[in-house]
From TrEMBL:
It holds the Pfam family DUF3048_C. Residues 79-222, 273-378 form the DUF3048 domain. It comes from Candidatus Roizmanbacteria bacterium GW2011_GWC2_34_23. InterPro entries: DUF3048_C (IPR035328), DUF3048_N (IPR021416), YerB-like_sf (IPR023158). Gene3D superfamilies: YerB-like. Signal peptide: none annotated. SUPFAM superfamilies: YerB-like. The lineage of its organism: Bacteria, Candidatus Roizmaniibacteriota. This is PT repeat-containing protein.
Length: 389
């Protein structure tokens, strides 16, 4: 009888533990709770003398995403992989983030409650630490769809309330779930990990990190996704790149030295953005919430060559999400836009006809605007927001 009781207790404990794991796996919006089956990893670095040597090589090769000139060795690496979009949060406790300075293109928009989030697109450069990683939102997915066939998408869960903002449902509709989608709940340690030391004394949801190298390796080994898929289809089939141009000559650079805007007025002090133009480097440095916005990987201020402010209709999803309010942005179609480069501003329109089209930018004469070689930072604001410059 005693042995039977012991056996019953053992089975009961196993059942409870199994239930905890199952709950953790499927609870997308609560994906960063203490139940999340994600291991801790102490701070490490993949960078070493080899990468330093690569970075010191002559910059002769054009990155297909933003035109930045990089080395031949870097080109040999990116040509064997496909674009990777990673969701990175911008809660105050998540700063300074890791890896943003290595992204080719970055999109920023409000995720919920006035708190913005980034979709960082990596292809031509590597980042050994990227994060903190957070959950998927449907409008970021629609930006990512413009990057060819089955771009990789890394996130930790996502909006999954039935309705128009159901990001996880949309991923399933796209056929990405068991293919190019890299949800932390289906991708095991060590491809995602928690680091409680990188940002001190922050809530658990701000501790998930990843690595571009590890994710590209996982996609290759587990999903048969390199620059081609298992059927031999190249990722860039149907991809429409931007037009690129070199830096303007010093004498041709403009005098628009400050770009200042907010997303939601009531949170301007925490999430207001200022981009300051440096004519010597022909680039813009970022301040967020009144503080210089750093990349923890480099210790340097985030810096971009192109700042594009697009205006899109913002509306509530009204899907009954208990955690707050999921949002929708009408980022398919066209709208007004401000394009800042070379110390100048160009007023025009943005256009993204379908989900599969890459977003493009046009001046008042409907001529496509070229990208200055280097990082592109695309800021999506609600229609009616004011931008000071």
């Amino acid at each position: 009888m005693i042995n039977k009781k012991i056996a019953f207790v053992v089975v009961f404990i196993v059942f409870i533990l199994s239930g905890v794991t199952t709950f953790s796996f499927f609870s997308a919006e609560k994906s960063l709770s203490f139940l999340s089956p994600i291991a801790y990893q102490a701070p490490t670095s993949e960078n070493g003398s080899a990468e330093a040597t690569i970075n010191a090589e002559p910059k002769t090769e054009e990155c297909p995403l933003n035109g930045q000139l990089l080395s031949k060795t870097q080109r040999s690496i990116w040509e064997a992989q496909r674009p990777l979009g990673i969701m990175i949060e911008n809660h105050k406790e998540a700063r300074p983030q890791s890896g943003l300075s290595s992204a080719d293109i970055i999109y920023e928009a409000v995720a919920e409650g006035g708190i913005t989030r980034f979709l960082a697109i990596f292809y031509c450069q590597n980042a050994s630490y990227v994060g903190p990683v957070r959950s998927a939102r449907i409008y970021f997915l629609k930006f990512l769809e413009g990057y060819g066939q089955n771009p990789l998408y890394a996130h930790v869960g996502g909006a999954n309330t039935p309705g128009p903002a159901d990001a996880l449902g949309y991923i399933s509709e796209l056929g990405w779930s068991s293919n190019n989608d890299l949800n932390q709940f289906s991708v095991p340690f060590p491809y995602f990990w928690r680091d409680y030391e990188r940002l001190k004394n922050v809530a658990t949801e701000h501790t998930v990190y990843t690595s571009t190298k590890k994710l590209w390796q996982y996609a290759k080994d587990k999903r048969e996704l390199t620059n081609v898929d298992e059927k031999g289809v190249r990722w860039d089939k149907g991809f429409s790149p931007f037009k690129f141009e070199d830096d303007a000559k010093a004498s041709d650079r403009g005098k628009v030295v400050k770009i200042d805007f907010g997303f939601w007025d009531n949170l301007a002090s925490d999430f207001g953005v200022v981009w300051s133009y440096d004519s010597r480097t022909n680039s813009y440095k970022r301040t967020n919430g009144g503080v210089a916005h750093l990349d923890k990987n480099t210790g340097k201020v985030l810096e971009a060559k192109n700042i594009v402010v697009i205006f899109a209709k913002e509306s509530p999803a009204n899907d009954g999400y208990e955690g707050g309010q999921h949002l929708l942005y009408k980022n398919i179609g066209s709208g007004e836009m401000l394009f800042f480069k070379n110390g100048q501003v160009v007023k025009g329109t943005w256009n993204k006809e379908t989900e599969e089209d890459n977003i493009k930018f046009f001046d008042s004469s409907d001529e496509e605007i070229s990208i200055v070689r280097g990082q592109v930072f695309i800021e999506m604001l609600p229609i009616g927001n004011k931008v000071n410059y």
